[in-house]
């Protein structure tokens, strides 16, 4: 190990930065975050640094570097664009055993500045020993996506309760188990969604209760899995998928996405039973309640966004009534996923100022839609579940006044490697779609914006 990672308290300590450009500014920012007393030496300052100097948030010495600047400092950062000056600073600092960092020059450094994942008070410092700052940055991006933004809040809460928990659980193993349960359970989740007060009260309750009931509370995560491409999951969705003990998923959720759940997660398919009937909504809700009551962390994974034509609201009503903790995680809805991946902006200054989402379910051979609102000018219409009714839909729209030539797109399995896009107009698309063996899920987009597909199409799997 060439470098020893340490976390240094530099509060109010004099730290020298030589250089006044944007690179120096970045270093100054880091030092200031750690409450250092920052002294900058440079003949001139970039805008960012001069603002800090004007507000006396840094001490500025307007001159070239000289040896005297090193006196009484606890560390020095050389960020000038002159290699010989940087080298001189490094040599002089080394003579004085003063830790020195020379930007982008590991050989001249006696310490390096790591990439930081900051969840104050939690800090993760990443270093590649100067081998590849880019690699460190990529690694950092990965960690950023895995660690909830409010992790620091959680740490603060733990700190607050440390003594109380120690008193209740003098045995270290007990204590560890207690904290592990908290960190992976509903209280941590409350913090992540910003319910600090609720979390505080719940934590207090776990300590005041005679019975140790922390293991008995389950919870439900209603998660939108997006339209198909696993890369379109949210950070939170992925984290909860890795945390859940049981997952209920349906037809629309791609197997590659279900596979991102923890390996030992119980998987329950609720899309369609063997007799080809979907598990009734009431049974799904009941199952969610039962599993949560068993103390399980239950993931209800749904295609797209759970609150857009996903009956997500109905599924959680019972949970709310039974006082079972739950959270809802939005997903990228199919309209938005398909539109983006087909190169069809849903709104556009020249073509559409509004956009409506409807379902194209057939009822007694017709569609129960508010046609007046649909045929408004400069509007994009997005139709979910519209394949079966495509012919009726186009016919009706023409009857109600939309031109036969109005462009329409049919996007099959949008955002996946099997995506196919069919473009036509209201008069021709129903016939055209019959020629192809089109199966759901498909999304229909109607409006002038469809014209843009020709020039903006970018995602062409199989090409
Ligand atoms: N809650 C989901 C919608 C469920 S309704 C969401 O927000 O996306 C199911 C309909 O969504 C399907 O019939 C189809 O019209 C559309 N859909 C879902 N995924 C799709 C995909 N990958 N490609 C095209 N359409 C899709």
Overall description:
With 463 residues, the protein is of the alpha/beta class. The chain folds into four domains: 14-113, Rossmann fold (3-Layer(aba) Sandwich), CATH 3.40.50.720; 151-208, no CATH class; 219-332, Tetrapyrrole methylase, N-terminal domain (Cobalt-precorrin-4 Transmethylase, domain 1), CATH 3.40.1010.10; 338-456, Tetrapyrrole methylase, C-terminal domain (Methyltransferase, Cobalt-precorrin-4 Transmethylase, Domain 2), CATH 3.30.950. It is built from 17 helices and 17 strands. α2 (47-54) links the parallel β2 and β3 (59-62). S-adenosyl-L-homocysteine (SAH) is lined by residues 227-228, 252, 302-305, 308-310, 333-334, 338, 384-385, 411, 413-415, 440-443.
Keywords:
5-stranded parallel sheet; 17 helices; single chain; alpha/beta; Cobalt-precorrin-4 Transmethylase, domain 1; binds S-adenosyl-L-homocysteine; Rossmann fold
Describe the protein's topology.
Elements: E1 14-18, H1 22-33, E2 37-42, H2 47-54, E3 59-62, E4 75-78, H3 83-95, E5 100-102, E6 115-119, E7 122-126, H4 133-146, H5 151-168, H6 172-183, H7 186-192, H8 196-208, E8 219-224, H9 235-243, E9 246-249, H10 255-258, E10 266-269, H11 281-293, E11 297-302, H12 312-321, E12 326-329, H13 334-341, E13 354-359, H14 371-374, E14 379-384, H15 390-399, E15 407-412, E16 420-425, H16 429-435, E17 442-446, H17 453-456
Parallel strand pairs: 1-2, 1-4, 2-3, 4-5, 8-11, 8-12, 9-10, 9-11, 13-14
Antiparallel strand pairs: 6-7, 14-17, 15-16, 15-17
The chain binds S-adenosyl-L-homocysteine.
